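Next comes this protein:
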Amino acid sequence: MKLLKPAQPVAKTKDRFASQKRKQPSMTALLGAAIAIGAASNAHAADADSPFKFMIGTGLTYGGDSMVSVPLSDSSQDVFRAGGLVYTYGGGEYRLTDKVALQATVGYHMNYARASSDGKVRFTRIPVDLLALYAVTEKIRVGGGAQFVNSPELKGSGAASSVSQKYDSTVGAVMEGEYLFTPHIGVKLRYVAEKFKPRDGGASIDGSHAGFLFNYYF
């Protein structure tokens, strides 16, 4: 019976080969994961080195002359100003040097109020911003430029349908500062000086305003 023992290594050899075969998929998965990680790292490095980034942003603005008084449900009056209220935009940034970058965005700027007697008033315009920014530190940038405001219009509906006024397109001056929490997230404080002239004549109104904006770069 002891002569049968030499057959045992053959069985063990087969088991070892079977074990190696079972391990091959795991090695393939590890190799695939390594390739994927390497590709992601290269893509991230390429993105970091790229001088161009897309950007989107939104924020609140306040200021300017009173355009119309809107009666509210509590019998008070809402002073509807030419510099408000919600500003949303998108565009891109091109980095010229480590310190200097150019931004171009197009947006939608709207002030809105609901009257007590089922009426609505809104002032809308489409701003195009062309800006230059200088990096004072890694986190802080300052800059300025021009805002080209297109199709400004004051319009009412419902009980406020008699409110209707179009204004000429105009150009304003922008001054701003930005704090970058990360290379992708920043907040801006800005001031825009601009005036709107009624299309059918009359005195211009001041639409100058301050703004607090949130930016995302990608």
